[in-house]
Specification:
The complex is a heterodimer of chains A (421) and B (161).
Chain A (H helix, E strand, L loop, with lengths): L4 H10 L9 E5 L2 E5 L2 H11 L11 E4 L9 H16 L4 E2 L8 H7 L8 E5 L12 E4 L2 H10 L1 E5 L3 E7 L8 H12 L8 E5 L8 H9 L8 E3 L4 H10 L17 E6 L6 E3 L7 E3 L10 E4 L1 H4 L2 H11 L9 E4 L4 H9 L2 H8 L2 E2 L20 E4 L15 E4 L2 H10 L11
Parallel strand pairs in A: 2-3, 2-5, 3-4, 5-6, 8-9, 8-11, 9-10, 14-15, 14-17, 15-16, 17-18
Antiparallel strand pairs in A: 1-7, 12-13
Helix pairs in contact in A: 2-5, 6-7, 10-12, 10-13
Chain B lengths: L1 E8 L6 H4 L10 H5 L10 H4 L5 E4 L11 H8 L4 E4 L4 H10 L3 E3 L1 H6 L5 E5 L4 E4 L5 E3 L5 H8 L3 H7 L1
The chains are: A alpha/beta (421), B alpha/beta (161).
Chain lengths: 421, 161
Amino acid sequence: MGMTMTQKILAAHAGLDEVKAGQLIMAKLDMVLANDITGPVAINEMKKINKTEVFDKNKVALVPDHFTPNKDIKSANNCKYMREFAYSQDITNYFEIGEVGIEHALLPEKGLVTAGDVIIGADSHTCTYGALGAFSTGVGSTDMAAGMATGEAWFKVPSAIKFNLTGSLSPWVSGKDVILHIIGLIGVDGALYKSMEFTGEGVSSLTMDDRFTIANMAIEAGAKNGIFPVDDKTLEYIKEHSTKEYKVFEADADAEYDEVYEINLSELKPTVAFPHLPENTHTVEESGDIEIDQVVIGSCTNGRISDLRIAAKVLDGKKVKKGIRTIIIPATQQIYLQAVKEGLMEIFINAGAIVSAPTCGPCLGGHMGVLASGEKAVSTTNRNFVGRMGAIDSEIYLASPAVAAASAITGKISEPKDLGM
Amino acid sequence: MKANGKVHKYGDNVDTDVIIPARYLNSTTPEELAEHCMEDIDKDFVKNVNKGDIIVANKNFGCGSSREHAPISIKASGVSCVIAETFARIFYRNAINIGLPIIECPEAAKKINAGDEVSVDFDSGLITDVTTGETFTGQAFPEFMQKIIKAEGLVNYINNK
């Protein structure tokens, strides 16, 4: 029996010729990641392990991106604790304010993750790097600590669901609409413990940023990982960003899948996930009049340059509706600078939006856009759980940058078509 | 190893944001996290929970964020076991890694009522609803995970190797 793409990567990292779904393996890690929330807990756990040094100072990444720039004293102390650990261990990939960006945009941009890698991160959206043809998955702080100390992690080899993509996306439809549509189709536990393998001729039409967004939200369907095949666009991205050795894995022709879904990209429309689960999807057309208070465009899901370009295209020459707080967050310093060079910042500021330094901030109700009681937001982030962005009775509607920007202008859930675009 | 306690019952997709809201993630102290455990889904949980109590929930318990603060807050609040129809995979790993006993059993998740007294035998996987007298068999852990559980977490397991 053949192996899926994920199974082949795991087998290679476990030193095995073959693995089967359900098998428990010990795999070598190419990168181990934590942020300012999970890192301090991981460091505490690592100190309990009888090993004083990390397994490889080049294969650990510590990224203080969640509550930074420090939102309060406790957060500042956590960051200080992680910084001191990073310096004492001489961690190569520790990124201070000025260099830091949202981890899942930063690591690919810095070329620290590449095709064929096995990566664990103490952050659930670590699955993002599947866009590059890597196996990457979120873990907790203790797994992170064990990974930092030993360079290995145990995995149960996952079975897989195949998503066969055909056609190509219509204007104003993006990777976010694809993944929201899929989560709406299979539910928030539709891929529990499994891989989501995206394949088919439709993949080639998706930009790398679209693929990062899609792989990023695999966890929102309960998946262990989401993964794309490596094609010319992937190789072009890797060559532009990374000097690391990469390896291309392909699923066997006779690989077994639990289920196969056919997704015609041409049929997808701008999609919104209503509170309080990412599976509560509706097209914007069928959403009705929902008035909002805030718009957030950013996060590890949608804070990349193409996201900002789409938002700017919608906002260019227009004003956000009076009273709609519109917060735009470039995911990394490089994206920020690129947006400045391209004149996107001028468009945002003239439109009445604000632009923040890179941070996860409002996505998890940390800072930079916490919602008050009863308020509603359209957000390009990844979760709309109860209380996620602030007050327990606030509401989050997840959407693409195009929908978020259009909604900022009208003050209610809208798409560019509603603006005559 | 056994657990015995009163049941706190929840539904589907209890996410880690409601188990421990991000506004408290600037703390890493188990006791502080326990003060806010389940706050956004059951504001009285902290008042009502007693040492040894058991959480029972339906499918996909612990979905969302990878924050280990979620199982840490549950364990530190005195809960002795979580029974669910299914667990989200990162929560599942985290619970085992920190030594919070969890057990998957769809039938028990469906039939056990809030307030029932329940006992769990982890060696046999036997779950007994003492209040109703019904018994259920939960899914036993693979041998590899049993070793981690017996070592009371991944850190000890590695140190013992």
